[in-house]
Amino acid sequence: MGNSFGCSATGERLVSAARDGDLIEAKMLLDCNPCLAKYSTFGGLNSPLHFAAAKGHNEIVALLLENGADANSRNYCGQTALMQACRYGHWEVVQTLLLYRCNVTRADYLSGRTALHFAAVSGHARCIRLVVADFVQSAPNEALHAETDGDRSDGTYVKNKYDQSALSKFVNKAADGGITALHMASLNGYFDCIQLLLDLHANVSAVTSHYGTSLDLIGAGSTPLHYAASGGNLKCCQILLARGASRISLNCNGWLPVDVARMWGRHWLEPLLAPNSNSILPAFPSSNYLSLPLLSVLNIARECGLKSSTTSDDDADVCAVCLERACSLAAEGCGHELCVKCALYLCLTCNIPSELVGPPGSIPCPLCRYGIISFVKLPVSPAKENKLQTSLGLCTPCMLHHRDPDCQSPVHTPEIRKNRVASVSSDLLCPVTCSPFPSVTIPLCTCNDGPCPSFEPREVETQDESHHRVQAISMDNDKMERPRLERTSCSSLFWGRRSCSREHQCNSEINA
Question: Model-level pTM?
C-alpha cells in the first residue's frame, strides 16, 4: 500500500503530519505525491487515514480522501479508520468517512468487532447513530403510518419491513463469543447508548456463546441484563427490564442476573433483579439521539458535496443559520431552506426530546420549531465537478506508445461529485505499480495496448520462429510468476493467529 522505494521517508512525514494535525505539511506532501495517501507503516500497517481518524483531525481526513486514500483500508488487525474514529468518539470524522461511502459492516480480524461495537464499548451515541444511518430511512410524514397500512399498493409496507430487518441484523451482529453492541454498552453502563440501541431494534434477549477467545468472567449464555448487573448501573437495568429483559434467564453457570450482581458486589440491584421483585419500572421515552432526517441529508451531501461556497449571485439564498453558504436543501413540511453542513450539524447535535416537536426521531427546525423528519434537495443546488488528478508519483505517462488522438475513452460518471478525486483513465497513464520495499527495481511498462516498441531494428521473423519465441516467453513468465504467487498467498496469517499483542502493536503506533 504505497511502501515503495523513495516513498518511505515522505510517507513517514505524512504519518507524523496526520498524527499531529499539521494540515500545511500534509497538503505540501500530497501536492508533491498524491500516492502517499495510500502509504502504510511497516509495523502495524496503519495508513495516514488511521492516524488522522484516531486523533480526530477531520480536515486531514478529508484531505486524504480527496487525494485517493482508501476509506476501507485495514491495518494489521483488520481495523479500518471508521473503527478508530468510533473508538475515540470523533463523530465528525465518522461523518466524513460516511460521505465517502465507507463500509460500516466490516469486522476486524481479531474478534469480529464492527465499528458499532467500538462505538458502543466507549459510549459514543452520536457515532452509533451515524454508523446505522444508512439503515434508517428518512420518510415523509405520510409514510410514517405505512406499517399499519398493509393494503398499500406501492410496496412501502414491504420496503419498511425489509429496512427494519436489515437494521436489526446489523445492530445484533455478534462479535467473538456472541457479544453484541448491547452487551458492551450494558457492561460499561452507557445509558444513552443502550436507549438508542434498543430503539434501533437491538435484541434484549441475545445471549453469548461458548465458542470464542474473548475472556468472559460472566459465562456463556448471558444476556445484556447479566452484563448490566455486572456493571452496576441501576438505570441501565431498569430500561432493559422495561424493554422485555427477563429476570429469570440462566446462563451456562446457572446464574441469574441477581446472582451476577451479588458476585460483583452490586447489592443495590438486588431489589430490582430479584425474580419475585415488585419494583415499579419507570417509563422511558425514545432516545434523544434518534434522527430520522439524517439519511436524507447524507444522500444530498454525497451528491452535492459538503462544502458549498457562498455564491456571488444576488438571487441565491444564503443559509439563515450560518449566513455563509448557499442553501441546498429544504425541510420537508415547513419548507425552510438550509445548507448541507448546517443540516448535518443539526441532525447530530440536537438532543431535544422529539415528543415535544413531532414523532420520535424528528428534530426541531431552527427557524419555526417544526418537527423535521426528512430533507429534500433544492433544484438550484449545483454539483461541483471533480478535478482530474494526473500526478501519480512514480507512475508516469508512457511516451513509447502511439495513441490514436481520435480514440476517446468512455465517460465515467463519478459516484461522489464533490470533494472526491476522479480516477485517472488508463488511456492517459500506464498502469505501472510501485515495487515493494526494499527492492529498488522499477517495473517495466505494462500498458494494455501491448509491449512497448523497441528502438532497435529487428529482422522479419518467420512464423515458426515467432511461435517458438512466444512459447519460450510464456514458460519464462510462468517460472517468474510461480514464486511470486507463493509469497503473496499469506492472507490466512491474519485469520489464523489471534493475539492481544497485535492490537496493542497497532494502537501503540497511533498513540505514540
Answer: 0.72
How would you classify residue 323: left for phi > 0, otherwise alpha for psi between -120 and 50, otherwise beta?
A: left
Looking at the chain, the whole-number percentage of residues with pLDDT higher than 90 is: 49
Dihedral sign from CA coordinates of 311, 314, 316, 321: positive
C-alpha grid cell for residue 295?
439519511
Q: Residue 330 is part of a domain; what is its CATH number?
A: 3.30.40
Q: Which three cell numbers stand for residue 119?
A: 462505538
User: What is the tally of structural domains in the chain?
Assistant: 2
- pLDDT of res. 376: 93
Neighbour count for residue 277 (Cβ, 10 Å) = 14
Please choose, from the candidates 500, 511, 512, 485, the residue with its C-alpha nearest in 3D space to the C-alpha of residue 109: 500
Q: Which domain holds residue 67?
A: 1-110+386-394+417-436
CATH number of domain containing 54? 1.25.40.20
The per-residue pLDDT for range 252-299, each reduced to its tens digit, is 999 999 999 999 999 999 999 999 999 999 999 999 899 999 999 999
Q: Check pLDDT > 90 for residue 14.
A: yes
Contacts of 349 (CB under 8 A, 6+ apart): none
Q: Which among 68, 102, 14 is positioned nearest to 388, based on CA atoms?
A: 68
